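Customer escalation, tier 2.

The customer says the design service returned an amino acid string that "doesn't look like it belongs to this structure." They asked us to rerun it and document both sides in this ticket. The original structure tokens are below, unchanged.
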């Protein structure tokens, strides 16, 4: 069986991984592990986008390649509202901060809303036979509850790790 014959199965696998990541994010959030929940939210989006790109016969080895292709194929082309691109970028940045910056704390309400937005996108995509264009049907509006995270605080930096401590004299 060649790669093309396996493609539908691999697409389904990436969608399964996206849903599995969402379920894990819910468990992590319920347990109070907000950084781990943000990590899983990002991976849910990443796996979903990877599936959508594979539907278009594109796959990438790096997260940066997936991100760039998502913007090129879906956002810049006008297939998706620009807000979906902003959402993906935000969860990408949140995951980076949560995984690699010391003393970052995510507010539970912020994580909960990001999870809700990711869940909506995932369900829409799955019910559209892996067609991300379905997301353009109902982009979040400024007054929409799914966009309420715009008023929430960004991740808190408990201590700036880049700031040098002044020597005691």
């Amino acid at each position: 069986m060649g790669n093309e014959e396996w493609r539908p199965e691999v697409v389904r696998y990436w969608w399964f991984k996206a849903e599995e990541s969402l379920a894990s994010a819910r468990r992590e959030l319920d347990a109070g592990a907000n950084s781990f929940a943000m990590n899983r939210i990002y991976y849910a989006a990443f796996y979903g986008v990877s599936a959508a790109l594979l539907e278009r016969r594109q796959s990438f080895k790096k997260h940066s390649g997936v991100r760039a292709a998502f913007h090129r194929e879906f956002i810049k082309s006008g297939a998706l509202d620009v807000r979906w691109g902003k959402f993906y970028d935000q969860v990408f940045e949140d995951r980076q901060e949560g995984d690699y910056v010391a003393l970052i704390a995510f507010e539970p309400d912020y994580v909960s809303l990001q999870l809700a937005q990711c869940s909506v996108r995932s369900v829409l995509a799955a019910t559209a036979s892996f067609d991300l264009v379905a997301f353009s049907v109902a982009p979040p509006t400024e007054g929409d509850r799914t966009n309420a995270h715009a008023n929430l605080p960004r991740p808190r930096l408990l201590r700036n790790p880049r700031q040098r401590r002044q020597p005691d004299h």
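Tier 2 assessment: The sequence is consistent with the input. DSSP finds five helices and two strands in the chain. Residues 3-157 form a domain with the Four Helix Bundle (Hemerythrin (Met), subunit A) fold (CATH 1.20.120.330). Sent an explanation to the customer and offered a walkthrough call.
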